[in-house]
Structure formats: structure tokens, C-alpha cells
Design the sequence.
């Protein structure tokens, strides 16, 4: 299976997802600035993959540190964490991964700067490896929710390209497919960045999973025609009440699924939950540049510069539209407030 | 206001809408084949404008006729109507306009072929002129449904570019705007052909109506944020029970509007009603080429040729999701079956 992020001894090989599906090119990242740029400009995307890239990016940055004392090193670390945190605002895994990285240093009593640098690399590799396992576990917990001969709708890309493993939403699909469930996946193209067309359809096709690409506007008609048995999507941040921030368009799909009485599942690791947020209202939603809508990938002008656009990168789906949240520790069902808290407590 | 179709003595000047918004180029049509090609390849689109173009196209074709008798002429006319009818399958105005053209000839007792040719041109011009008036009347009947300071969502293009006048859905919007109602229009970009981005946003902006462009996947979030007070769309065909076939994505918007208790209006002339169809199930839905999805705006490859796509050009919105149908003879409200029949009878 394709890998979005590969650690190579002293640098990161990062698949430039903005060039897919036409070109499969890995960038060589050796600095935190390159990592920041790759996250900001969507060369890497997907909440878990952003977290992994930020973790390695933090190591790459701190590995160049000239600090001679622990104090100097920690001060630089805080600055660099703040810098990398500002790459994108919505996916909480970014902050979670950077926080885990910091904890690994503060927990390490050593005053030797080289030791502190080493622990950062060890922790980044562990975040990466753990994510691979979490994807497997999410897939195993979710696969029984997929009936035989199911039509499955997914939005955006929550696959191998979005994680350190086989994906979250697509992890469930890969696991169901490997059990010969004869599934058919419908991929929303996911405007404006078209992750569904460029990434999900490409990734599933490469992996031999039957997939059909549709425009985002066609999902309701597919449901009306009874071709969809369940929806599975990923998540960028989940509030304590079960509100899910995910790629813009997810909310439309959730409302349509509810209207057609189709189960709507979210698949995400526990690192996606932000227990500091009581509800979805407080999740910060990134508003991106109008040119992403007006001018696809710099190639096709569909609206002139004088046309105003509104381009939120994410939306928030309220818990009442969600059938279940598939995590590496099992499926969380309503009532979410209570069951999310229990799951998070038992995982700590 | 921009005109999509202009008759010029002996030919049709037709705005090539596939080149908008970057280029405003009128094609010179002098044959039925050119008219067929323009309809088939979406150089002209929008149910009323398709009907008008087909009517002129039929005249242009028959004007070249070498028939010397009425019988020969009528036989050729039938062939050419069949030919032009096959340009696109869903918009009923195409068949309606060609049928009106035929009636004008059969009602004309003359055996003089030149006279029969003349009556075709007279009828085509009348279809065009009547459509201009119908747009005005639809606008006048609909404008009172638009509250002051309303946020209005529209999908695809049902404006001047889709008709012989100021449009159907946009006709209502232009009339409301001319009464200083301080409206804001949100235009769904309308994948795959992007009529909302390329045509509606452009047309409204040219006319000085405030408009903001969004991707189709963002409509639910706008509603969630209470920015939409009503939805108005056009129609390609309406069955006797009030089921509305319109541009793919209309059904998604209708379900989302119902979920948020937002009024959902359809604006269309009575020529859009197909009383031969009891329900929406029998409306033929055109399935178009996968490349319209895979190759964004003909310029950017977003999926490789091996990726299967499903590309229905229209969807069907059931009557229970429709608040009212705005026609040139007033607004039709539920129960649709009964009220559509009454409206059609009183109009005949």
C-alpha cells in the first residue's frame, strides 16, 4: 500500500499529494520549515498524517538546534511547536502530536541536548508506528459494520494517504474488502481540493478495491436509488459531545444519510478527540483562499477574480446525525457525551 | 442584460457558454446541424433556451428544404424534429418547442412550401418572445416570496443565460433585487459543468446583484449558519405529481433545505410540465460522459482514465420537498397533483 510519509534515517520522504494522480513524487524534507510548508499547502493532509509530519518536522527543526543547555533547548522547542502548530488550525492531531513530542522531552530528565534530540526522534517514530497499528485496530473494529455486498459512500480521503497506515475510514473498507465482502465504494470527489477524486479513487483503485467516482452533488441521488448501505468518513477533530469536524461536505452527506435512514459512521483514532471542547461550536474552522474555488490547481479558471467566494475547509456534523464513531478501542455509540468520556478514561 | 440567443434576420447568434467566463463569444448558426451540436455540447443550455434554439434550428434546417410539396415538406419536418429531439433527453421544453413548431405548420393549410417555411420562423420568434414575457411574469409572481435582506441559495443557472429573458429562478431574484430588497445570492458552483460558477456568479455579478460562490458541498453549512432564507432553482421537466427533474445536485439541496426548514422553490414556465408523466420515476435522466468529471473544466486531470465515474446530468426532487412552483401564471402550492392539473387546464 502507498505510504504518504516515510522516515529515512535523517530525513522525511513525503509524497506530494498536490501532484496526484498525475505524478507520484516524494519530496525530501530536512527542515521544520519544509514540514510547515508541506502541511500548510496540503502536500500532506489528513489529520493523522499531519500529526506524524509535524512530529518529524519538530525533530528535524530541533536537530539543527545550537542550544547548549536544557533550558535553551526547551525554549526553542516551545517556539518551534508554536510555529508548527500554526500551519493549520482545525486538525487536532497536529497539536496532539506536538504535545506528545514535548512531553517526551519534559519527561526525560537529561540535560544533554543530544539526548533530548534523540528522544524527539524516538517519539516521532513511535507516533508514526502507533498510528499504523491504530489504523489496523480501527479497521478491525469497523469491518463488522459493513454488510456483504454493501455500497459504501465516503467523502474526502481518510485512507493510507491520510495516515501512517491503511487509513481510518478506508482502513475499515480495506479490512472489509480483505474479507471478500464484495463491496462497492462511491467516492465523493470532494471539492474544492478534490481529495476524493485525486486521492481516494486513486488509492482504492491501486489497491484493487472497486470504486466509482461521483461529484459531491450526486450523493443524494445515489441514496435515493438505494445504492448506499452505509457512509464512512474520517474526522479532523471531535468535540466531547461527539460533534465531528471533518472535510467540508461531510455535513451535507450526514444530513442526506439521515434523510434516507442510512447509517453514518465516523472512523478516527482517539487522538482526534478534543476533550477541551464541549461542543462543535468551539471547533475553529479554517477558511481558505477563494482561489482554491475560482481556479482549480492553477489550471482551470471557473470564476473571474471579481467573484467573491466562501471557502471553509471543514464543517461540523452534530452528534445526532452520527450512528457511531469507530476508534482503535472499539465503536462509540450514543449517548456520545457519556460514552466518549468513558472511552477516553479507559484508554488513559 | 446578457442574451444567450439572438435572432439576426437569417441566422442565430448563440453565446458559446462553454467558453464563459473567460471568453464571451457568439457563434453564428445557419443550419440545424449546428443547432443540434450547440445543444448536445452545452454551448446553449437551460431548458427554455434549449427550446428556443431548437425552434430556430428547425427553421434553419427546413429553410434549406428542397421539398416542392406540402407532403414532402411535412415528411422532412418530422425527420428533422426527430433529429433535433435527440440532442438531449431530459429538458421537456425541447420537445415542447418542436411540437409547437410542428403545430404551426399543420395548422397552416397552405400547400406553398415558402409559406410553411415562413410560418416556422414566425413561430420560432414567438416562442422566443413569449419566453421573454414568461420570465418577467415568473419574476413578478415570485418576488413577493423573497423577504427583505434574504440570503438566497440557487443551484446551476436558471438565468438570462438559460432562457430568452431574465431567467426563471434568477428572474425572481432580479425582480426582488430591482425592488431594493438587499438580497445576497449564494451560487452553488454546480459540478461537473460548473454552470453556477461559470454562468450564475458571472451573470449576477454583471447585473450588479450581490453574489457569493460556494462549492456544492458547502450548502448545508451555510444553512446551518442560518445564512439561507430560501432556495430557488429552475427545472428541466416537471411531472404531473410535481416531481422536478433539474440539474444534478438539486435533490441534495432540497433535502438539506427541508432538514433546516428553509423554503424550497422551483421557478419554471408551464412548458416545463410534462402531463404525460404521472411521477418523477418516468423522467428520463441523461447520463453523460465520465470525462466531464475526470477532467475538470476540460483543463485539469483530477482522476485517471481507469477510474470509473457515474455522471447523471439531472436528479429528481419529489414534490414533498418543494414549497411551491413559481410559474408565469402564479405560484402552484401543494397538493401538486390537483393544483398542477387545475393550472394547466386554466392555461389552455
Sequence:
Amino acid at each position: 500500500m502507498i505510504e504518504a510519509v516515510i522516515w529515512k534515517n535523517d530525513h522525511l520522504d513525503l509524497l506530494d499529494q498536490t501532484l496526484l494522480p498525475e505524478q507520484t513524487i516524494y519530496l525530501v524534507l530536512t527542515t521544520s520549515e519544509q514540514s510547515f510548508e508541506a502541511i500548510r499547502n496540503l502536500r500532506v493532509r489528513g489529520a493523522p498524517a499531519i500529526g506524524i509530519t509535524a512530529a518529524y518536522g519538530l525533530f528535524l527543526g530541533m536537530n539543527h538546534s545550537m542550544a547548549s543547555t536544557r533550558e535553551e533547548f526547551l525554549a526553542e522547542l516551545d517556539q518551534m511547536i508554536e510555529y508548527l502548530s500554526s500551519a493549520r488550525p482545525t486538525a487536532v492531531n497536529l497539536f496532539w502530536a506536538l504535545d506528545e513530542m514535548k512531553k517526551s522531552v519534559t519527561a526525560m530528565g537529561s540535560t544533554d541536548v543530544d539526548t533530548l534530540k534523540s528522544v524527539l526522534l524516538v517519539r516521532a517514530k513511535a507516533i508514526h508506528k502507533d498510528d499504523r497499528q491504530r489504523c489496523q485496530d480501527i479497521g478491525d473494529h469497523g469491518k463488522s459494520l459493513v454488510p456483504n455486498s454493501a455500497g459504501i459512500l465516503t467523502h474526502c480521503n481518510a485512507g493510507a494517504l491520510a495516515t501512517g497506515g491503511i487509513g481510518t475510514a478506508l482502513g475499515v473498507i480495506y479490512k472489509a474488502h480483505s474479507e471478500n465482502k464484495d463491496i462497492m465504494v462511491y467516492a465523493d470527489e470532494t471539492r474544492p481540493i478534490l481529495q476524493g477524486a485525486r486521492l481516494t479513487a486513486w488509492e482504492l483503485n491501486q489497491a484493487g478495491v472497486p470504486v466509482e467516482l461521483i461529484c459531491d452533488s450526486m450523493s443524494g441521488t445515489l441514496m435515493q436509488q438505494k445504492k448506499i448501505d452505509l457512509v464512512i468518513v474520517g474526522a479532523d477533530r471531535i468535540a466531547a459531545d461527539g460533534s465531528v469536524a471533518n472535510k467540508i461536505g461531510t455535513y451535507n452527506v450526514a444530513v442526506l444519510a439521515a434523510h434516507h435512514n442510512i447509517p453514518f459512521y465516523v472512523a478516527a483514532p482517539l487522538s482526534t478527540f478534543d476533550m477541551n471542547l464541549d461542543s462543535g461550536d468551539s471547533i475553529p474552522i479554517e477558511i481558505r483562499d477563494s482561489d482554491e474555488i475560482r481556479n482549480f490547481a492553477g489550471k482551470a479558471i471557473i470564476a473571474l477574480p471579481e467573484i467573491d467566494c466562501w471557502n471553509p475547509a471543514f464543517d461540523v456534523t452534530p452528534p445526532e446525525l452520527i450512528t457511531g464513531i469507530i476508534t482503535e478501542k472499539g465503536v462509540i455509540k450514543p449517548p456520545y457525551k457519556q460514552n466518549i468520556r468513558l472511552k477516553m478514561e479507559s484508554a488513559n
